[in-house]
Write a structure and sequence with these properties.
By secondary structure, this protein is of the alpha/beta class. It has a single domain, classed as TIM Barrel. Helix 4 packs antiparallel against helix 13. The structure holds glyceraldehyde-3-phosphate. Pathway: Carbohydrate degradation; 2-deoxy-D-ribose 1-phosphate degradation; D-glyceraldehyde 3-phosphate and acetaldehyde from 2-deoxy-alpha-D-ribose 1-phosphate: step 2/2. Its EC number is 4.1.2.4. GO terms for molecular function: deoxyribose-phosphate aldolase activity.
Length: 329
């Protein structure tokens, strides 16, 4: 999209050479060689580039477009122990018609729930074109036997999930057991079958270094992720401009190396329209305009939608209507 386009270019790493999948994934040692052979991340450069792109101003007509685009990219999420069918139905109604006073307002991309509430969401969203996303694999910690994680995934898919958001085994990853992480993603991918897209949550806040985030991104993509996702939203550090920029570089480089396009989903702590628009600038400037659609970029968020709606109403009327005029997230 040219209106979010750059006026100045900033250097970012060149695409990585195509990996030979069979060689790379043959063993822990081969995966380690490949993942540790990826270029090291210049943390200072990454953070300054993310900060610099965050200062880009977006003019009024582009802003209207970008606010609607951001709404259409939301995975409207509720992941609480206290979730009820009633809460999920209310969220689905909101996802269908985020602003009942303005039917031009786009619907969200998906409603994201725990697997036991997939059937409720499925029924409430019938005919809407909005996807049902389910977290699975013992979300958020991912601490369970693989059989339990696969059963969780299979139940979500059987209940009608269009998308499965799995967590990687961070313990195995940090211990260098890359093959185990790779094989688990493959197994979950298989449990998703043809029906469900797979989003792989790296849980960046637990990966300790930017180098690890780059390695985990590649590992997930090699194993068949349709999307890579920053976070569960349940730990101290979730989606940040810098860790999302790094993952956008990874999907860009992966497509250059393999021809396969993978989506990106920052999640956790994204609450304001201002922040969402900064993320869209990062997408355009890093992965490129091919990613500026809900097919390739999502926001995992429980309470971003209301601020986007308030900003949208302000653009239309010239004033804020205030939080009382949008339904509670
Ligand atoms: O995947 C989505 C996140 O759990 C939502 O996090 P949030 O409540 O900080 O928006």
């Amino acid at each position: 999209m040219s209106s979010l386009a750059s006026t100045a270019s900033t250097a970012s790493p060149a695409p990585t050479a195509a990996p030979a999948l069979a060689d790379v994934t043959a063993s822990d040692a081969a995966l380690r060689r490949f993942l540790h052979g990826l270029p090291g991340v210049d943390a200072v450069g990454l953070e300054s580039r993310a900060a610099a792109l965050g200062t880009r101003s977006i003019k009024t007509t582009t802003k209207a477009y970008a606010l609607d685009l951001a709404i259409s990219m939301i995975d409207l999420t509720t992941l609480e122990g206290a979730d009820t069918p009633g809460k999920v139905r209310a969220l689905c109604a909101k996802g269908r018609h985020p602003d009942p006073t303005d039917r031009e307002t786009p619907s969200v991309a998906a409603i994201c729930v725990y697997s036991d509430l997939v059937a409720v969401a499925r029924e409430a969203l019938a005919g809407s074109g909005i996807a049902v996303a389910s977290v699975a694999t013992a979300f958020p910690a991912g601490r369970a036997a693989r059989s339990v994680k696969l059963a969780d995934t299979a139940e979500a898919v059987a209940a009608g999930a269009d998308e499965v958001d799995m967590v990687i085994d961070r313990g195995a990853f940090l211990a260098g057991r890359y093959l185990s992480v790779y094989e688990e993603i493959l197994a979950v991918r298989e449990a998703c079958g043809e029906q469900a897209h797979l989003k792989v949550i790296l849980e960046n806040g637990e990966l300790a270094t930017y180098d690890n985030i780059r390695r985990a991104s590649w590992l997930a993509m090699l194993a068949g992720a349709d999307f890579i996702k920053t976070s569960t939203g349940k730990v101290g550090v979730n989606a940040t401009p810098a860790n999302t920029l790094l993952m956008l570089q990874a999907v860009r480089d992966f497509r250059a190396a393999t021809g396969r396009q993978i989506g990106v989903k920052p999640a956790g702590g994204i609450r304001t329209a201002k922040d969402a628009l900064k993320f869209l600038v990062l997408v355009n400037e890093t992965a490129g305009p091919d990613w500026l659609s809900p097919r390739w970029f999502r926001f995992g968020a429980s309470s971003l939608l209301n601020d986007l709606l308030m900003q949208r109403q302000k653009l239309g009327t010239g004033r804020y209507s205030g939080p009382d005029y949008v339904t509670v997230d």
